[in-house]
Amino acid sequence: MLTLVVSVHTVAKRLAAWWKTVRRRLDGSIEGAAILLSVVWVTLVTAFNDWSKEKQFRGLQSRIDQEQKFTVVRAGHVIQILVSEMVVGDIAQVKYGEGTSGSAEAQLASD
C-alpha cells in the first residue's frame, strides 16, 4: 500500500513539473494560437454561410425557371412558354415589371 501511495505521489509530482515546463513554453504562443484558431473559425463560418446562400439562390433560380412564363410570338403564333423554353428567334412580349435573362435585342412597339 505504501508503494502505491509513493508511486502515485511521484507520478503526480512529475506531471506537475512537466505541466510547468509546458506552460512556460506556451506562454508566448498562446496568443498566436488563439488568433490562428479565430481566423480558422471565421473562415469556416463564412464558407458555410456562403455555401448555404448559394444553395438557396440556386433553388430560387430553378423555381423561377420552372414557373416564370413569357408571351412570345413564334412562327407567327402568340403562345405562352416557360423562360427556359425560349429559343433564338422568339419575339418576347415583355410587359411592365418583367425582365429577360441573357442578351436581348429590344424593339419598341405599342398596341
TrEMBL record:
Key words of the record: Magnesium
Source organism: Dissostichus eleginoides
GO CC annotations, alphabetized: endomembrane system; plasma membrane
UniProt record, GO biological process: regulation of cytosolic calcium ion concentration
Descriptive protein name: Plasma membrane calcium-transporting ATPase 2
Transmembrane segments: none
Recorded superkingdom: Eukaryota
Keyword Magnesium attributed: yes
GO MF term set: P-type calcium transporter activity; PDZ domain binding
Its membrane topology: Multi-pass membrane protein
Location in the cell: Endomembrane system
Main location: membrane
